[in-house]
Amino acid sequence: MNLHAIKTICSKIYHTFSTEGAQEIPASDLSLLIAYLNVSPTTVYCMEVDEAGFIFSTRTASFRYHHDEKPEERLIDVV
Questions:
Q1: 26: DSSP letter
Q2: In what order do the strands lie in the sheet with 75-78?
């Protein structure tokens, strides 16, 4: 999966949580994030969402997405 594709998925997830008040990542998006992070598909995850973006965490990996209105300014960081 290329960086542009994962940024697009993360933007969609961010909007789902921030504007629609979602409590879970849609299954199709979750499977793509899990594949990107290369963690077990049965992994339990935690989401922390704020106005700047979100952090997706599992026991073995954390992934930070910083949202920006300009797609080229959106940042992804595996921490």
A1: -
A2: 46-50, 53-57, 62-66, 75-78
- Prediction pTM value: 0.80
Distance between CA 78 and CA 16 in Å, rounded? 21
Q: Which DSSP state fits 35? A: H
What are the pLDDT digits (tens) for 7-38?
999 999 898 888 888 888 888 888 888 888 88
pLDDT digits (tens, 9 = 90+) for 36-53: 888 877 777 888 888 899
* Distance from C-alpha of 70 to C-alpha of 15, rounded to nearest angstrom: 14
Tell me whether residue 76 is exposed, middle or buried, using C-beta atoms within 10 angstroms of its C-beta: 0 to 12, 13 to 18, 19 or more: middle
Q: Which two tokens stand for residue 68?
A: 């920006």
| Whole-angstrom distance, CA of residue 70 vs CA of residue 5 | 15
Q: Is 55 helix (H, G, I), strand (E, B) or coil?
A: strand
